């Protein structure tokens, strides 16, 4: 059985600090549709509730909140198999507090969960470490405390860093194999599509932690032709362009997320610092760029030389990966 172990506060419901009153319960807007998409997985909640051990609320109040959350999800067809909650403080050194693996091992025995095929989603380094300690994969979400702890969480190597639960679900469900093409073969793929009379559109970039600006430029790029090829900068390329702390997500993870867009036909990863050689191979009919680069971008000469044109997409103000990680 494949499972997803979900953190509670900051991942499913908004975290105002030691949240425990049912009247304060508030789900993030994307939680229900995201969990509905993950119906192929058994869903569990694993939560650290040290507020009980610290005396901020009772164990009964915690159970009432958990029951209310599970019932609310169940009304929308989302079944939580079990809620595992640790009530101890960190100082007590228990085995059940995340990143300890006691609860996921218990789920393995009780429900037949195959841990190596399962995931953890949460907003804290303990969630990422739980997955690492139990041999699972993980997604760090930047809701709750995710952005605050991003650097610490990165040390445990989450499979993906997502802006929210919706992106986490997309990453888990993504099947990149059918769309991802090696750099050395993408030119031939473009040539074969052109022989079929298809209009080729290209777009390149880092595509690190995705935001609405990425979604906008991808949709508008697809509207310019028949076949959309997105070229993702390799990790070494990103480090050279943006510095040693980037990217937040590795090239395989970034390509996987881009491949999940229905508008995208092919994805390739290119190691060069700029896409000129890539565009020489593909010879797109249209190359799409953001408005910060303009129609006289470095790609323009190569694209126009082969009869193509540049299409500029106006950026969405206030949206960037940098903004997301600052919280």
| CATH-derived topology of the largest domain | Rossmann fold
Instruction: Please identify the top-level CATH class of the largest domain.
Output: Alpha Beta
Kindly report the average pLDDT value: 94
Distance between the termini: 35 Å
Number of helical elements:
14
Explain how this protein is built:
This protein is α/β, with parallel strands linked by helices. It has 14 helices and eleven strands. The chain has helices spanning 31-37, 50-53, 59-74, 102-111, 125-134, 150-154, 165-173, 186-195, 212-222, 235-242, 251-259, 276-282, 300-305, 321-326, and strands spanning 3-6, 42-48, 80-86, 119-122, 137-141, 160-162, 200-205, 227-233, 266-270, 286-290, 309-313.
Keywords:
alpha/beta, 327 residues, five-stranded parallel β-sheet, Rossmann fold, 14 helices
Concise overview:
Helices cover 36% and strands 18% of the residues.
Note the topology:
Elements: E1 3-6, H1 31-37, E2 42-48, H2 50-53, H3 59-74, E3 80-86, H4 102-111, E4 119-122, H5 125-134, E5 137-141, H6 150-154, E6 160-162, H7 165-173, H8 186-195, E7 200-205, H9 212-222, E8 227-233, H10 235-242, H11 251-259, E9 266-270, H12 276-282, E10 286-290, H13 300-305, E11 309-313, H14 321-326
Helix pairs in contact: 1-7, 8-12
